[in-house]
Design a protein that fits this description.
It is built from no helices and 16 strands. The chain is mostly beta strands. It has two domains: 5-107, Jelly Rolls, CATH 2.60.120.10; 113-223, Jelly Rolls (Sandwich), CATH 2.60.120. The strands form three sheets. Strands 1, 2, 3, 4, 5 and 6 form a six-stranded antiparallel beta sheet that branches. It has a five-stranded antiparallel beta sheet with strand order 12-9-14-7-16, with no helix packed on it. It starts with a strand and ends with a strand.
Length: 226
């Protein structure tokens, strides 16, 4: 991509014990948070919210968060430039934070993008026919299992594991026959796709086939690369 600049999309997994809180806010970044389990209070800039499981939050501002009495399990994506290894680690008593996966994205500074955070649910044996997306992103399996085949190589994904899809690479994926495949993801997409699907099926015969996957969009926000 002519004129593209490298950005790094990072996924952190944050687990907070009952009523645990950060000792220091996380610095400003293009950031999405998905609550996997428990409940968390999140504050960024002049906004705040208390989020239950299966909900999302977006802000480009400095952020802090704390768990309710039940604790909280969060997935946190950040889009940044040239981060160091320790950047983004959440600190606090009874807070466990780790960098789960990071991937470089080549983004055009003259283009306009949005950040989408959604959840995809496939039933046991459900197939995501060979497809591409119009932007790269990081996925994390929430429940069940998932098979992902790219360039002839298949990887089996387990809950808590993450993987990166560039976007233009054709992907064939399916849930095992004995369990579903549920995952959350963040993708960086063209703004023209706000509210629209980013998927393109590679094989014409797959376009009109029944699609078993269910999509829930939590965040579909315009972003400024700066």
């Amino acid at each position: 991509m002519i004129g593209a600049m490298p950005h790094v999309l990072r996924l952190f997994t944050d687990k907070l014990g009952p009523r645990a809180a950060l000792t220091h806010p996380l610095p400003a970044a293009i950031r999405a948070i998905f609550v996997v389990d428990g409940m968390a209070s999140i504050a960024a800039g002049r906004t705040s919210a208390t989020l239950a499981a299966n909900s999302g939050w977006f802000s480009p501002d400095s952020v802090t968060f704390a768990a309710a009495a039940s604790g909280a399990h969060l997935l946190r994506w950040e889009l940044v430039k040239t981060p160091e290894a320790s950047h983004g680690i959440a600190m606090g008593e009874n807070v466990a934070s780790q960098l789960t996966l990071e991937a470089e994205l080549q983004l055009d500074p003259k283009a306009e993008y949005l950040l989408r955070c959604d959840k995809v649910e496939l039933p046991p044996g459900g197939i995501a026919y060979t497809h591409t997306h119009q932007g790269g992103g990081i996925r994390c399996l929430l429940a069940g299992g998932f098979n992902v085949r790219v360039h002839g190589e298949t990887r089996f994904i387990r809950p808590g594991e993450a993987w990166f899809e560039r976007g233009p690479d054709p992907v064939h994926a399916w849930a095992p026959d004995d369990r579903p495949g549920h995952f959350a993801r963040v993708m960086i997409l063209p703004r023209a796709l706000k509210g629209k699907s980013s998927i393109r099926y590679v094989m014409p015969e797959d376009v009109d086939k029944p699609k078993p996957q269910k999509y829930t969009i939590f965040i579909d926000e315009f972003i400024e690369l700066g």
